[in-house]
Structures are given as structure tokens and as C-alpha cells.
From TrEMBL:
Domain of life, source organism: Bacteria
Organism: Roseibium aggregatum (strain ATCC 25650 / DSM 13394 / JCM 20685 / NBRC 16684 / NCIMB 2208 / IAM 12614 / B1)
Gene3D superfamilies: Hotdog Thioesterase
Domain called MaoC-like: residue spans: 12-118
Protein name: Probable enoyl-CoA hydratase protein
SUPFAM superfamilies, per database record: Thioesterase/thiol ester dehydrase-isomerase (SSF54637)
Amino acid sequence: MTDLLYFEDFEPGQVFELGSLTVSRDEIIDFAAEFDPQPFHLDEEAGKASILGGLAASGWHTGAMVMRLLAENLLNKTSGRGSPGITRLQWKRPVHPGDCLTARVEILDTRDLRSKPDLGLVNIRVTARNQKGIEVLVWENPNLFARREVAR
């Protein structure tokens, strides 16, 4: 890859649009059957009987779909070196079959790392909205990025 984004390329307030994807009924059920087999993720009637209002994607499935958009449309084009974890994760609204999720990233802040002068820390907020513009997911986390030049 060429033209990677490095730590120095990120500034607070920057926004990166990550694109969209649509989730199907079968994808919701397949993910749930393997990773989150709760009835309201597997069966329409159980979903209707729950507070979710119908068959709904697992929050973990929603996060995984948004992670795919983040990786394909930003992280894989950077000098990213991983993340030490997530500081905030909220599943704001259910995701139903046919929903089209659109995601974006906002850079919250950046920080030099004295202990690792070849890396910098970038705190991000990832949000996803459905086709109605309703926020369905928010997470915040720090990410490590290589620097072009080692900090002194």
C-alpha cells in the first residue's frame, strides 16, 4: 500500500465517512446462531415479543458490521498498530433486517506516547445510523498509529 495515513495525519475534529451496508434477515440469524443465540436474534416472533420490536441483529453483529466498514474504509489505509480497547460502547437502537447502516469516524484527540516514541495515540468516536438517520451504535476507543518519524 502507498499513501498510508500516519499518526501525524490525524487532527481533532476530522471526520472520515466509512460508507454503508445493508443487513439481511439471513445474516442476522446466521450471526446470532453462531455467536449470540438469544431468541430475539433468531426468531421473528420472539423479536416481536421483546422490546426490540421484531427480529433484531445482535449488538455484537452491529459492531462487527461497523468494524468492517471501519477497517475497509480507514484502518487498512493507515499505519494502524491496533487498539488497547474500547472506552465506550452503546447500542442505541435495534438493527432490523433490511436496515442500511452508514458509519463515520470523528477524531476526538491525539497524543504523543513518551513510552513509545515511534507511535501516537488517536482517540476516535465511531457512529452508525440507519437509513432513517437514527443513531444505532456509538463507540469510542484509542488507536495506535505509527509515526512517520520517531518523536524526540
